[in-house]
Amino acid sequence: MVTDELAQLIARGASPAEAALRVTASAPGVNHVILGSGRAQRWEAAQHVLTLPPLPDKTLREVIDVLGA
């Protein structure tokens, strides 16, 4: 499945939701991300992802290439 492959490109072992959040938070010009979840474990996972450094530009370009194909 493309979603899982893309998630692994972004961060090995990440769920698709965690990978999507990492890409969003790494996008140039993004200063805030609005999240919603009713499960504590998802909040904790999101909090962890948001403490990670931004993805390298090369990885962001690869993600865009995959999504544009």
Q: What does it look like?
A:
- This protein is an all-alpha fold.
- The protein contains four helices and no strands.
- Helix 2 crosses helix 3.
- The mean pLDDT is 87.
Distance between the ends? 14 Å
Structural class: mainly alpha
Query: What is the CA-atom radius of gyration, in angstroms?
Result: 12 Å
Order of helices and strands: HHHH
Number of distinct helices: 4
**Shape estimate:** globular
- On the 0 to 100 scale, the average pLDDT is 87
Biggest β-sheet: count, sense, barrel?
Answer: none
> Level of helix content?
55-70%
The number of distinct β-strands equals: 0
Model regions low in confidence, pLDDT < 50 over at least 5 residues: none
Beta strand %: under 5%
Layout of helices and strands:
Blueprint: H1 2-10, H2 16-26, H3 40-51, H4 57-68
Helix pairs in contact: 1-2, 2-3
Task: Sum up the structure in keywords.
globular, mainly alpha, about 70 residues
